[in-house]
Amino acid sequence: MADSTATPCDIMLFGALGNLARRKLIPAFYQLDRAGLLAEGSRILALARRNLDIAAVHRQLLGALEEFVNPEEFDRSAAEGFLQRVDYQILDFNNTEDFQVLNTWRDGARNELIVYMACPPAMYGVIGRNLHAVSCCTERTRVVVEKPIGHDLESSRVINDELGAIYKESQLFRIDHYLGKETVQNLIALRFANNLFASQWDQNHISHVEITVAESVGIEGRWGYFDKAGQVRDMIQNHMLQLLCLIAMDPPSDLSADSIRDEKVKVLKALRKVTPDMMANYVVRGQYTAGTSTGVLVPGYLEEEGANKRSETETFVALKVEIDNWRWSGVPFYIRTGKRLPEKLSQIIIHFKPAPHYIFDPDQRHLANNKLIIRLEPDEGMSLRILTKDQGLHKGMRLRQGPLELTFSETFDAGRIPDAYERLLWEVMKGNQYLFVRRDEVEHAWRWVDRIIQNWNEGGEPPKRYAAGTWGPVASIAMITRDGRSWYEDA
Ligand SMILES: NC(=O)C1=CN([C@@H]2O[C@H](COP(=O)(O)OP(=O)(O)OC[C@H]3O[C@@H](n4cnc5c(N)ncnc54)[C@H](OP(=O)(O)O)[C@@H]3O)[C@@H](O)[C@H]2O)C=CC1
Ligand SMILES: O=C1O[C@H](COP(=O)(O)O)[C@@H](O)[C@H](O)[C@H]1O
């Protein structure tokens, strides 16, 4: 299925001067324009409440491009050309009457309308109702909303109900930017285009799976948001469970959005509920203390700007997840994610079971498991660890483990790998929902993580401390060691 060209769009960007817009969305639109993917006649209306004129807004957005676009990809004249597509409208999102002005901007335009809500989720319903009140949207309007959808199952239902009262599910594009990452998409190709893997992808052949999403950064001045969320809501409920679903789901019957989403939902429904008695062996939460991160001394979580010194919010989580279905029975998924870990590293390791009958040197038995390492970051690619005979007459039948390596940037001359937001915006412009999250996915994910949070709230242990720049609390190592395994470290 090759990419088709998007039709011209009018994009209303609510929250256009906020953090996400500056860091990700404006740079992504710029890159799409530079690549010739913003169809002729496409326009962006930046919406925010700051009293600025268009020249000042252009200056701010140019500053964002200078700061957040890779310097090798920043071209001033292309940036200025792109900004010609951007208008600005001062708007209080709460004020229905103000929304009339949006119709003036549209002025009967025939471009597809995309509404991007880059603002707090509590505003989604308000904005939707106000747009509806001034008849700005049609049944063709696409509406993009950001994660997190709510704070728990109940609040996500409220937001989904508010949106659902105005828009059909087919109009809603719920972003999880991990689904826009090149390697994440490649999971679908890897699994369902290669029968070699498809035929080995179950409890008969796989012993366990690891998913690590580690960040070296802390909370980046986002205390207000992060302390209410914590790592389970910020990363597990969405990105990590989406990765797990793509690894664990059954083959969809085709590549349509609903076929893929149906399979992901089946996985979410099969996740074993974490009961209070499981917490000690299946869940570890941590919070960073001061330490050294990438060579620099950094404060602990409780010393971050704006911190409440008694917060028990977790900045690290490790979980052992069981999937109660035929394919994955007895195959634990160990997942961990945290802030202020030693490096920015995202990888999935599929550990295959050893051959049923081992005939080589008993001392080398520990080598006997093939591993498939899928790297999301850094150096997107894959590496299959296989066993070969060590070369040389004197080595006899000594085994050696080596990689079959595929680093995308080296193997394929595919040019730059687009940022996740570029791909997602491009798919919105084309109206493809397969990289976006359906309502029931969001709600099943909340249902599962809510239990963990509830167990903590009802007398769970406080987070275990770990020094910034380390791999989280030792308890996360103990969790996997108890099963006779260890977190994968590249040799
Ligand atoms: N930042 C990030 O890295 C990520 C953010 N997200 C999600 O994206 C969304 C936006 O986040 P972020 O950009 O960080 O938030 P910000 O607070 O930085 O930006 C939100 C913007 O919305 C504007 N706004 C809020 N209320 C109103 C109102 N009543 N009328 C007019 N403007 C209003 C704010 O204006 P003002 O500046 O005047 O207050 C601000 O510019 C959130 O849902 C967040 O969870 C998701 C993933 C990552
Ligand atoms: O959604 C979020 O993701 C980022 C990590 O994204 P990445 O693409 O840099 O891996 C995380 O830092 C942030 O806390 C979270 O809200």
* Strand residue content: 15-25%
Per DSSP E runs of 2 or more residues, the count of β-strands stands at 17
* Count of alpha and pi helical runs: 15
CATH architecture of the largest domain: 2-Layer Sandwich
Helix/sheet category: alpha/beta
Spell out which ligands are present.
NADPH dihydro-nicotinamide-adenine-dinucleotide phosphate, the ligand O=C1O[C@H](COP(=O)(O)O)[C@@H](O)[C@H](O)[C@H]1O
Mean pLDDT: 94
Radius of gyration based on Cα positions: 24 Å
Helical percent range?
25-40%
Number of domains: 2
Please list the strands of the largest sheet in the order they lie side by side. Answer: 16-15-14-13-7-12-11-8-17
CATH superfamily of the largest domain: Dihydrodipicolinate Reductase, domain 2
What CATH calls the topology of the largest domain is: Dihydrodipicolinate Reductase, domain 2
Which residues form runs of ≥5 with pLDDT under 50?
Answer: none
For the record, the CATH class of the largest domain is Alpha Beta
| Largest sheet properties | 9 strands, mixed
Principal-axes geometry comes out as globular
Ends: how far apart? Answer: 38 Å
Can you characterise this structure?
It comes from Marinobacter adhaerens. The protein is α/β, with parallel strands linked by helices and 491 residues long. It has two domains: 138 residues, NAD(P)-binding Rossmann-like Domain (Rossmann fold, 3-Layer(aba) Sandwich), CATH 3.40.50.720; 280 residues, Dihydrodipicolinate Reductase, domain 2. The chain contains 15 helices and 17 strands. It has a nine-stranded mixed sheet, with helices on both faces. The longest helix has 26 residues. The chain starts with 8 loop residues before the first strand and ends in a 10-residue tail after the last helix. The structure holds NADPH dihydro-nicotinamide-adenine-dinucleotide phosphate and ligand LXAUTJHC. The site of ligand LXAUTJHC has 2 residues, from loops.
